[in-house]
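TODO from last week: model Xanthine-guanine phosphoribosyltransferase.
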Amino acid sequence: MAKSYATVTWDQLHRDARQLASTLMNRGPFKGIVAITRGGMIPAAIIARELDCRLIETISVVTYDEEKMGEANVIKNAEAAGDGEGFVIIDDLVDSGVTAQLVRKLLPKAVFACLYAKPAGRPITDLFVVEVPQDTWVLFPWDTAPLFIPPLASKSVEKA
């Protein structure tokens, strides 16, 4: 179980994806992008736009059940990417590195880039934007919903 949580907003995610795209421009041009589903799909779309890349492939790897780590299982391969030459792999987060290691094995010639990296997974990725502590669970915008929070003044009025 995570000791702490970090919430990523849509604005922050977009800024970080554009920053990653900017760094990737020096490594390209790329023939295509492989998004690791599901977390890599939105960053991949943003990066594809910024790099003017039209070919987006997906690879689907299941490793988590809620917050529990399981065995990595490929349920859809990235056939169009071949061995990964000329492609960049995009994910939202590299955590333990289990998914990243499996995808790297399948696409050994691709560049692996993600928005956020934890220390255990960091050595497996080529590029990332922000390092996150290993014991932090990252809450992405698609995992959360904004909630109404009453103003502080309304709480003190209720008590009066």
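Done. The chain has a mean pLDDT of 90.
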